[in-house]
Amino acid sequence: MRTLWYALRSAFFVLWMSVTVIPWAIAVILYSAFVRGDRMYWACAGWLMQSMWICRVVCGVKPRVTGMENLPDTGVILLPKHQSTWETFFFPTLMPHPLAYVFKRELLYIPFFGWAMARMDMIHIDRSRRTEAWNKVAEQGKRLMDNGNWVIMFPEGTRAARGQKGTYKVGGTRLACSTGRPVVPIAVTSARCWPRKSFLLRPGIVDVSIGKPIPSVGREPDELMREVEDWIESEMRRLDPEAYAGQGTDPRT
User: Fold this and answer.
1) Which residues are 206's β-sheet partners?
2) Main-chain dihedrals φ then ψ at residue 13, nearest 5 degrees
3) What is the band of 195 on the pLDDT scale with cuts at 50, 70, 90?
4) How many whole angstroms separate alpha carbon 189 and alpha carbon 232?
5) What is the pLDDT of residues 60-74, one digit of tens each?
6) Residues with Cβ < 8 Å from 6, sequence gap 6 or more?
7) Closest CA to 123 of 172, 58, 183, 185
8) Of 39, 53, 44, 52, nearest in space to 26 by CA
9) Rounded to an integer, what distance in angstroms lies between the CA atom of residue 76 and that of residue 179?
10) Model's pTM, two decimal places?
């Protein structure tokens, strides 16, 4: 019975997003004929803010954020744990600067949602053309950070199941080392409430723990990413010990 209740609330949330994204996206596309940049970003973020409010009120998914004081004022590269769609929606509602996501270009083909994303200062790449993709990340990432945006990349690339971890790729730290910008690791326990490949949301707390900036100057991308991975995976074990029961204490396993 409880699962049925969760399913009904989740269905309402998904339906709300599906219905509201259409007029919002149309308005954003029309608005983009006159303005771009930060004003366009915050116009799109408004829909995400409403979505996260509905997620909290209807589905009972509530964020608990620690470490906001660790965020610097300068350009930075955010490297979060990736477990769910939840954090991709939540971060623009949390961060004080516009975020430039690095994402696969196929998302631009999603009706309305993707069309609106195409009007924003984001970095969409073709994963099948790795050299070209990296050149685009390096060029646009530096330009956007110079303009006050923060770049956000999920090191694992795709969503990991609760208690699991993907392969941490060095794209984010490579960008950091090439631009001299610091990286900020972030642990997120969103799979407790919204697992990957599922639209069933369960009420609960999603912990978001923001680590201290890690300088990139004089570092190698591989070494820097190992430090990011160790911090995130260790923090995940602290925040969600139930998910890692029986796995030991080594964050690399």
Assistant:
1) 63
2) -60, -45
3) very high
4) 11
5) 999 999 999 999 988
6) 59, 200, 201, 202, 203
7) 172
8) 44
9) 10
10) 0.92
Residue closest to 60 by CA, chosen among 109, 8, 127: 8
Separation between Cα atoms, residue 209 and residue 94, nearest integer Å: 12
Give the span between the Cα atoms of 24 and 48, in whole angstroms: 11
From CA 225, how far away is CA 172, in angstroms rounded? 8
Count CB-CB contacts under 10 A for residue 80.
25
What is the rounded distance in angstroms from the CA atom of residue 195 to the CA atom of residue 193?
6
What are the backbone dihedrals phi and psi of residue 249, each rounded to the nearest 5 degrees, phi first? -105, -5
β-sheet bridge partners, residue 123: 102
Nearest 5 degrees, angle CA 99-CA 102-CA 108?
100
Strand partners, 57: none
Q: CA-CA distance, 48 to 67, in Å (whole number)?
A: 22
> What gap in Å lies between CA 38 and CA 147, rounded to an integer?
10
Helix pair angle (38-59, 85-94), 10° resolution: 120
Report the C-alpha dihedral over residues 174, 186, 227, 78, rounded to 10 degrees.
Answer: 20
Tokens coding 6 = 């969760």
| Alpha carbon distance 72, 84 (integer Å) | 25
- 229 closest CA partner among 252, 207, 208, 206: 252
Residue type for 228, please?
V
Query: Region 165-178: what's the mean pLDDT?
Result: 94
Which residue reads 């609760």 in tokens? 162
